[in-house]
Write a structure and sequence with these properties.
mainly beta; Jelly Rolls; 6-stranded antiparallel beta sheet; RmlC-like_jellyroll; RmlC_Cupin_sf; UGlyAH_Cupin_dom; Putative cupin superfamily protein
């Protein structure tokens, strides 16, 4: 039996994810775990280059922990705050958010779809 042990710093099995504003690329995703139920919970590593990433309100909840890098983060019309290693962020269903990534960035995210 092989134990599923991952290192968040490993850049293996990365797939392209959301591009930074004004570019064709900028971030990558590595799926760690997905619930076997259709539209189930996902745990993934997200890695991004500096740039702006705008997220419209989505039909999901997300909680992430910043592992590496710094960013200015805002939700809805709130003033942006600086986040970095150790910051834990929760995004409620339907709330738009924005990441202005200042340095190479990595987070571990749990995403829970909400139909």
């Amino acid at each position: 039996m092989t134990m599923p042990i991952y290192n968040i710093a490993d850049d293996i099995d990365l797939t392209p994810a959301m591009p930074a504003e004004g570019r064709e690329s900028g971030s990558w995703r590595r799926l760690i775990w997905q619930d076997s139920v259709e539209n189930g919970t996902i745990v993934a590593v997200w890695k991004a280059e500096p740039g702006i990433y705008n997220y419209p309100g989505r039909d999901l909840e997300e909680t992430f922990i910043v592992i590496e890098g710094e960013a200015l983060y805002s939700q809805g019309s709130e003033k942006s705050v600086t986040i970095g290693p150790g910051s834990i962020v929760t995004i409620a269903k339907g709330v738009p958010s924005r990441l202005d990534i200042l340095s190479p960035f990595r987070k571990l995210a749990t995403v829970i779809p909400k139909p």
